[in-house]
Amino acid sequence: MLWPFLSLLAAILATLLAGWLVDQVLQRVAAAHPDAPVWALLRRCRIPLQLVLLSALLLAARPVRRIFHADDSGSRHAVLLLLIGSLGWLTVRVLAAVLEAVFSRYETVTEDASRVRRVRTQLGLVRRVGSALVWVVAGGAMLLTFDAMRTVGASLLASAGIIGIVAGIAAQSALGNFFAGLQIAFSDTVRIGDTVVLEGQQGTVEEITLSYLVLRLWDDRRLVVPVSYFVAKPFENWSRRDPALLAWVLLHLDHRTPVEELRAELKRFLDSTELWDGRAWSLDATDTTPSTLVLRAGMTAADPDAAAALKFAVREHLVAHLRDRHPEALPRVKTD
Asked: Please, which of 5, 89, 125, 283 could form a disulfide with 185 given CB 3.0 to 4.6 Å?
């Protein structure tokens, strides 16, 4: 009886050694090919690979099988379930590593930020769908190892149509979000990193799943929205094609405001800040009221974040300039 236990110990040591050797090989290959990140990412597969090897040895090696008595089918069944689960885990890890390597490679050879965000969104959803399919197949394979499931297989197939109809009605919302997520990923309407405005809330797309989308708002709150919303309702995408924006500031001033001097001051300020991208600027009188003159300052910025910061800075600077140089230009409320 000592020989089977020694064989079990040898199987465990062989599994650990094989995992270590594979990790060393991948580490050397990754160092020799730094431009191919897939080798470094595959090192994450070490643990599931070791579990696959160990469970396969426990099922295949004859001396090890003697540990499981002829009537101890439960232990062999548990090892078989471990093998199937480990194969599923290994497949998911390999899929994630390959897709992440593909995106890293694409990111280094593409300068178009919008295309990079689009591919990132698509590959992220492909990874989630692929992982879900792998686990569904692995779970089905596990269930088929039970005698009871094989016995009732014919009945399950016969009632599959009714179950499918009931499940479809019960999961109508979930299925709608699922297909909406696929549509968003491959129709290029919204991507991770885009700046969108949704019902008055401006935010950056932080995560897209098959059921919901997460927006990071300006105050670091997270707005979670079903992906079906972006298919059924309109929304603003400020960075779909080009992240550059035209920012504008409205000022309600007195009619005595020296517009030409204020226009020159705006140009001087824009030349002094890195927030302005240098493409265009303007200062126009867009409206008048009996008590105020409405001026609109327009200036371009490279992205939505820079545009927001530029608006704040321009508004503060122009008001401070009028307060210090021309206080009569600031509107006053009469209280006669």
From this structure: 125
Asked whether the predicted pLDDT for residue 71 surpasses 80, the reply is: no
Amino acid at site 1: M
**Over 70: is that where the pLDDT of 328 sits?**
yes
Query: By C-alpha distance, which of 130, 228, 219 is closest to 178?
Result: 228
Cβ–Cβ under 8 Å, residues 142 and 81? yes
The structure tokens listed for 228 are 């079906």
Which residues, 6 or more positions from 212, have their beta carbon under 8 angstroms from its beta carbon? 177, 224, 225, 226, 227
84 & 37 share domain:
yes
CA angle 51, 34, 47 (to 5 degrees): 10
Same domain, 58 and 111: yes
The reported pLDDT for the residue numbered 251 is 92
When pLDDT is averaged across residues 7-11 and rounded to a whole number, the result is 68
Taking Cα atoms as reference points, which of 68, 64, 39, 66 lies closest to residue 53?
Answer: 64
Q: At what angle do helices 172-187 and 113-144 cross, to 10 degrees?
A: 140
Q: How far apart are CA 48 and CA 222, in angstroms?
A: 34
Instruction: Give the residues across from 215 on adjacent strands.
Output: 205, 223
CA-based end-to-end distance of the chain: 108
Q: What share of the chain is helix, strand, coil (3-state, %, to 5)?
A: 60, 15, 20
Residue 123 forms part of a structural domain: yes
Q: What is the number of other CB atoms lying within 10 angstroms of the CB of residue 98?
A: 16
Average the pLDDT over each of 139-143, 165-169, 311-315 and give the range with the smallest value. 165-169
The answer to whether residue 334 sits within a structural domain is: no
Read off the CATH number of the domain in which 276 is found. Answer: 3.30.70.100
Q: Is 336 a member of any domain? A: no
Q: How many domains does the chain have?
A: 3
Q: In this structure, is residue 150 part of a structural domain?
A: yes
Q: In the prediction, which pLDDT does 67 show? A: 54
Domain encompassing residue 206: 173-237
What is residue 248's predicted lDDT score, i.e. its pLDDT? Answer: 85
Burial 228-253 (b: 16+ CB within 10 A, else e): bebbeeeeebbbbeebbbebebebeb
